Amino acid sequence: MVQRRKRLLDTEAILDAALACVDDTGRLTMADLATRLGVSASSIYHHFSGRTAIVEALRERMATTIDLPPLDESDWGAQVSRWMLAYRRALAEHPSLIPLLNEQTMTAGSVLQAYESIAILLRRTGVPVREIVLWIGVLDCYALGAALDLAAPDEVWSLERDDLPALGEAITAAPRGRERADEAFALGLEALLTGLRHRLAA
Amino acid sequence: MVQRRKRLLDTEAILDAALACVDDTGRLTMADLATRLGVSASSIYHHFSGRTAIVEALRERMATTIDLPPLDESDWGAQVSRWMLAYRRALAEHPSLIPLLNEQTMTAGSVLQAYESIAILLRRTGVPVREIVLWIGVLDCYALGAALDLAAPDEVWSLERDDLPALGEAITAAPRGRERADEAFALGLEALLTGLRHRLAA
Questions:
Q1: Interchain contact B21–A (C-beta under 8 A)
Q2: Which residues in chain A come in under a pLDDT of 50?
Q3: Which residue from B103, B42, B75, B112 is spatially nearest to B193, judged by alpha carbons?
Q4: Residue B102: CB partners within 8 Å, gap ≥ 6?
Q5: What is the pLDDT of residues B166-179, one digit of tens each?
Q6: What per-residue confidence (pLDDT) applies to A7?
Q7: What residues contact residue B148 under an 8 Å CB cut-off, 6+ apart?
Q8: In this complex, is the C-beta atom of A194 within 8 Å of any C-beta atom belonging to chain B?
Q9: Which of A116, A153, A191 lies closest to B192 in CB terms?
Q10: From the list B103, B187, B199, which residue is nearest A134 (CB)?
Q11: B13 vs chain A: nearest CA distance in angstroms?
């Protein structure tokens, strides 16, 4: 019995349970996690130094599903776009995890490696060194927001009033649901990259 | 005593407590809310039909702090930017509320009125009717993500490795903390609007 429990409580099992806690309740506490695993909190501390380390391990695990930009001779904008698409998709799988990831300093190696690649791409295209982190922040904000947007209901607005004609007409004409979210994401990403190119040319 | 409790349990007191629940725990349950108010859940239902109605009332209350675009003859981009700045600031005051706001259909009147104004602005500047909702979605994603970014730690990345030279150099050269977040927000918003203008001109 002891052996079986020991086998079950490996780091992957803890991370699976932590993600389930976040998905179900929108938060992560060591007490909830211990209850879900059916162990004492102290046995979790045998594997992780605490909640921060668990969230960071979840970030690391998410990052390993995202291909790094190849940093080859292909268009830098296309490389950034592919990375952004994968990043948004990975974030959108667990939208409740987003605020947790966002509120702590990143130390996960794979994640830092991805930002290193983006920094290299932006430098190569001529972004001043002082602005690299700012543009990474812009991309991050947009990916986080777009991932949350994938969790929005198909019906974003409920209009039962006839005093909002412009919005009503726009909603009727627009795609809905996943198609709306995907088209909007592509449109905004293209606009961001166009804006950046325009700034670099100026 | 009964009278005092009745006076305390008005809709504003319920909304204050609901916001405190969300701020403290990252979630909102009727049970937690009743405990915090020291009342039974049924007395809350006397004021609100349920959790959805409470979240919607919080959205409405937030929206009333944001000035609507004047829809005057001033530059549409400047009108959108001012609204976005206020929207991000309001969202950032309660970042844990963001996922809750995002996951349900909007019915709050002041919020719908704001989107009506943005729809009118975008139509006037020549955005095709099918794309209005998409661009509103882009602005929304960016505002939500940027509001979350305000909750990020001053030190976004912790680099203790010397194999990430581009990122390391960029972090050293960049502004930090609130200054980083604000500059990035302005840069990205300008890029989005430039990209939109560019698309309209094409």
A1: no
A2: 1-4
A3: B75
A4: A95, A148, A149, A151, A152, B144
A5: 999 999 999 999 99
A6: 53
A7: A98, A99, A102, A141, A144, A145, B92, B95, B98
A8: yes
A9: A191
A10: B187
A11: 24
